[in-house]
Amino acid sequence: MELREYWRIFKRRAWIPMLLVVVTVLTAGGLALLSKPEYKATATVTAKSQGTSSTSQVLSFPEVATSNTVALAVIKKLNLNETVDHLTQRVKVSSGRSDLYTISITDPDGQQAAGIANAVSQEAAAQYPTLNASVGSTVFDQDVQAARIDFQKRYEDTVKALVTFQRQHPNAAQSGDVNLVAQASSLALQEQAAATAYTDFETQTTNSSVSQLSQATSFGAAVVDQAVAKPDTSARYLKVAYAAALALVIGIGLIFLLEYMDNAVREPEAVEELIGSPVVGIIPRATSRTLRPARGGAA
């Protein structure tokens, strides 16, 4: 079947999808107008982080705002009757600039939408520097503790080896055996090197701790605009548009379904194929426009 044939079929019953779309739009629009409106509240927060490298483990502000910690604190603060997962899914965070974020909440109750948006923004602004400082310090402390244990074990092993040798050979330094003198000097040198490495490590750890504390203070967030609930009509328009699109698809499907079930012969070529003889003539369908000249000629 050619495209021209598909177009001919569609044009013959085009009133079906058109009627379905009109009825669906009117029905969906009426239901949307009669339904209770949704309210959307948006708060604005500024969040900055300075002095952090790209490889440092830092939580972004959207991650903090949608975290379980913030959600749990908001639920307890407002006595909300919903789960943490449900609240985190409702929180929408978007970024207009690098350090400016908007937190949006949609709810059937406008007052509750504004309350949740303000509570989330305030709690996220308070938790942002705290969580980042704790993340950085936790990773830092774990690495330092592992390295400290390693340096300390190395130092203890060299001290034990040196003391054991000295007890076994108390006069090794005055011994005429060159191997004993060399072994005593080697053990003493290893003990001094381990002690120096351990001391240098503790010095570097102290300096890194001071740097870590200064870095923790570089995170800051503040609420710059409180949320005010406003009716959200965009969802209504989307529902009407989706309903119209679905009605159009169903209408087009009905056209081809009816055509498939229709056994009527409409084209001369189909008649010729059916009866096996050529068509001699075609009698056009009579309409008021085609009959008007005939009436005038008869008068």
Number of strands: 5
Number of helices: 10
Strand % is 5-15%
Tell me the distance between the termini: 47 Å
Q: What structural class do helix, strand and pairing data support? A: alpha+beta
What average pLDDT do the residues reach?
Answer: 79
Secondary-structure element series: HHEHHHEEHHEEHHH
Helix content: 55-70%
Low-confidence stretches: 51-55
Rough outline = elongated
Largest sheet: 5 strands, antiparallel
Task: Please tell me how large the radius of gyration is.
Answer: 41 Å
Q: What's the assembly state of these chains?
A: single chain
Could you outline the blueprint of secondary structure elements for this entry?
Layout: H1 3-12, H2 15-34, E1 38-49, H3 61-65, H4 68-78, H5 84-90, E2 92-97, E3 100-107, H6 110-168, H7 178-216, E4 219-225, E5 229-232, H8 234-261, H9 268-275, H10 288-298
Antiparallel strand pairs: 1-3, 1-4, 1-5, 2-3
Helix pairs in contact: 2-8, 4-5, 4-6, 6-7
